[in-house]
Design goal:
This protein is low in regular secondary structure. It has a domain of 54 residues. It has two helices and two strands. The protein has a two-stranded antiparallel ribbon with strand order 1-2. The protein is globular and about 45 Å long. The termini are far apart.
Length: 78
């Protein structure tokens, strides 16, 4: 069977993310929301600058859709 790469799209609006979340897209594409081409390059890889890991201080996965104001460790950009 041939390898097929897919991008799973999650439903719902994206909320403002925590100021401590980083993603590869910020360094490669220069923006948090990359184009479809940049997304194929692995820009979905995110980490927290507090933990330097894919899990935040609250032991939850760091992700563009999950690092929002509902988390205890969240800090807004302003």
């Amino acid at each position: 069977m041939a390898y097929t790469r897919t991008i799973d799209e999650q439903a719902g609006p994206i909320q403002p993310v925590c100021r401590h979340m980083r993603s590869k897209a910020m360094y490669v594409a220069g923006q948090m929301e990359p184009s479809a081409e940049a997304a194929l390059l692995g820009s979905g890889n995110c980490w927290c600058i507090h933990t330097q890991h894919v899990y935040g201080p609250d032991d939850q996965l760091v992700d563009r859709r999950d690092c929002h104001s509902g988390r205890a460790c969240y800090e807004g950009t302003l």
